[in-house]
Amino acid sequence: MLSRFRGPRNVEEAGSLESKDQRSKHYKFKFTPIVIKAGEAVSVIRDKDGIQTIHEGPYVFRPYYAVVDILRRITCDTQHYLVIRSINGHLEHRRGPASVYFNPCIYESITIEKAITLEAAQNIVVYKENSVDSSESSENVVAKANKSTHVSRRVVSGPDIFVPEPNEWLHEFSWHGTKISGQTKGSITGFPGDTKTAHAVEFTKLRKLPDQMYYTVKELRTKDDALLTLNIMIFFELVDIENMLDATNDPISDMINSVNADIMTFAAERTYEALLAESNQLSNNSTYKILGARMNTVGYILNKVVYRGYQTSSALQSMHDKAITARTQLRLDADRNKQEQINKMSNLKARQEQAKLEFDQQEKEANLRRKLAQQEVEYEAKMAKLKLDDEMAAEKIKFDHEIAVNSKSNELQLLHMKNVNNERQIFLHGLVEKGVDLTKYLVAEVGSKPTTHMLFESAGEGSDTRTPSLHFHDIK
Fold first, then answer.
1. Among residues 239, 230, 218, 216, which one has the least CA distance to residue 303?
2. Best CA proximity match to 163, nearest among 80, 278, 74, 256
């Protein structure tokens, strides 16, 4: 350990090292100088005035009439801290990495202590004595000291490396648990069939993680006075440290007492047979109402309770085994009779199913014949429809062809009339260019053509040959 920290761990170790250094002694007169190397320090007290002087190396001097002490360096790393106690009563905690020269004129002791390492989900409870302002009156100081509020409390959560202040201390927990032979530390979880005892588990670090605990309820009596021992396992989790600190000093004891009350209440309402028949309810959280309420009060939550079996006396167990054997034999006989009835019913059902299959086969063949006849009729109707559709399609093609021919003829007639009209227009336009009066020309052209044709026929032979009289009126 000494080589790890590059210096003495305490004052006694420092003194033993100093005794080996021949430079530490009382000098009256010396011509040869004393050399102080780098990393060393020396205390020099002159006889003439008694004043101490500290020199750090590298340093060279001649000690005339002086007491020389080589001061050893005490160091620590980041996982440790120095506890420095001065001769005036002042206490200081210096976190590593740190290095201090032990000066016996100033320090009473310097020790190296290991810092508190906290992993994830680990917590410690730290108490701190608040300092009192020296400027206040003595009456106020006494009044504050008499109050409990001069000490504060806080929870430090990991992961962290914690170094307490000189006026701080940790809460030490002492809970119920299982003492393990050969080990100084007890266990909260324990093992099946163990006995929980007070102050078996002592620690300073709390875990806010799901945890579990074996517990055995002994000397449990049922409604018919049967004596049992029940084994359970409790799964729980700490969720509120402040609430736990204010509500209890041993939550494991609260859990034990509460689960005892719940299970004894459950057993007192049932006989031995009923308890075994309803033992599945011992794994339901609803059975543990007192336990759940108490755990919520002390800052825990109840995750699950698992029933792990029971033990009883040999006589009662023998009676129970005989009763189980008799019940099993009766159940086997009943099952055999039931199986015989099931076989008979199966045979009858098989014959019924065979008859039903034959009837269904005949019905299926008749339906197939009807379906084939119907398909044949539908096929003939479909073919007739296809023939009619073909004839209609041919007529439609013929009709469409005639319409197309007539449309083409009409287009040709229209084109011919358009060409005639265009020629007529060109002709009339040429007359206008030649100075012909187009209006007179058109009137003359129209006047030279008869506008009305009349046909008079005489009567045939044997008819009246008289000349008919005709009278025309010119209507303007």
1. 239
2. 80
